[in-house]
Write a structure and sequence with these properties.
globular; alpha+beta
């Protein structure tokens, strides 16, 4: 049970990773990927521990913060497209937007409960094994608290242009990549009901989670 919670906490950190003290664009563009993860992790844990409403499970506040803060640090379109698989390319722009919105809500609502249980967790980022010219890297970290440590890895890409910097596009918790886990679930829905069926299923699941508080 403890390891399950720690895994949930790790994913929840992605869903709230940048809400405290987001870097200015110039700083984000220059910041190394491992330094970015370390800073966001430390700020997030400190902010959660200091915010009684998040500890009480205020999902609405968490979602609002994700809307304003998380998107600059995650390539969520790439994450959603990878989870949906080949059907993403056939989806209309409206369907793609609905998929992103529902998937984001699903992640936040599914894992926000873990935020209320943050206590003495500490996140350590391991030395980065990458070349200065690499455009994609894996940043490895470890979540420590009571019980066994949890290995947490981020797949990140370097993006050019406006808002340039390192972006998260996948997450590995306990040896399982988040995108691949959802891809197998989404594929079953798409094969049975199509893209609109997947959207409807996600929307219904989100409504159910909202009713449960």
């Amino acid at each position: 049970m403890k390891r399950r919670f720690m895994g949930q906490l790790a994913v929840a950190l992605v869903a709230t990773a940048a809400w405290a003290g987001v870097a200015l664009p110039a700083r984000a563009a220059d910041e190394a990927p491992d330094a970015l993860i370390k800073r966001l992790s430390d700020e997030t844990l400190a902010a959660i521990k200091a915010d009684k409403s998040i500890q009480a499970g205020d999902t609405g506040k968490i979602i609002a913060l994700v809307d304003s803060k998380i998107m600059p640090n995650v390539n969520f379109q790439r994450m959603t497209a990878a989870a949906v698989g080949p059907a993403w390319r056939q989806a209309t722009p409206e369907q793609q937007k609905r998929l992103q919105d529902e998937f984001k809500t699903l992640l936040v609502r599914t894992y926000s409960g873990a935020l209320a249980q943050v206590d003495d967790q500490v996140i350590t980022v391991k030395p980065l094994r990458a070349s200065p010219t690499d455009q994609e890297v894996v940043v490895r970290s470890e979540v420590r608290g009571r019980g066994d440590p949890i290995q947490l890895e981020y797949r990140m890409e370097k993006t050019p242009g406006q808002g340039a910097g390192w972006k998260i596009y996948n997450l590995n918790v306990l040896g399982v990549w988040l995108v691949e886990t959802y891809r197998s679930q989404f594929a079953q829905e798409i094969n049975a009901k199509g893209v609109d069926g997947l959207i409807a299923t996600l929307a219904e699941r989100n409504k159910s989670n909202a009713r449960k508080g």
